[in-house]
Amino acid sequence: MASVYSCTECGSNLNLNSAHAYPPDFYFEAGNKGSVSFSAVDPTKFKFEKEDKLRPFFETVNYWGIQRKRTKIKCNTCDCLLGYVYDDGPPLTNSPGQFHMGPSQVIPRAPRYRFKTKTLRITST
Q1: Please, what's the b/e burial string for 1-26 (b: 16 or more CB within 10 A of its CB; e: otherwise)?
Q2: Which CATH code fits 3-93+102-124?
Q3: For residue 103, is it left (φ>0), alpha (ψ between -120 and 50) or beta?
Q4: Is 20 helix (H, G, I), strand (E, B) or coil?
Q5: Name one Pfam family in it (predicted).
Q6: What pTM, to 2 d.p., does this model score?
Q7: In angstroms, what is the C-alpha Rg of the chain?
Q8: pLDDT by residue (tens digit) across 12-70?
């Protein structure tokens, strides 16, 4: 049974494949509450917009803030914000990491496309 994912604002089909969806209990560093995550999407259905923010966070006088880099996912039809792209997916290589302690931060990771459930209309076919 396949699911059809469409935008709640304009109703356009987003062409998301359920085969590329991560299981709901799959652990991610950026969380997965209230969202659906995919390993691949159809880039013709979305606009990707880079976001680079510096959020103020003052612990000491010399500490200015937290830099957050991420990519917004917007509907190509109505420009509605659907979610974000994170880089905390599975490692791109099968390397055991340094000293066989697991993959480190320097090993490139697959992108994860995280959509907010409130921005998706999910119907079963």
Answers
A1: eeeebbbbeeeeebebeeeebbeeee
A2: 2.170.150.20
A3: beta
A4: helix
A5: At4g08330
A6: 0.74
A7: 17
A8: 999 998 888 888 777 776 667 788 889 899 999 999 999 877 666 666 555 555 666 78
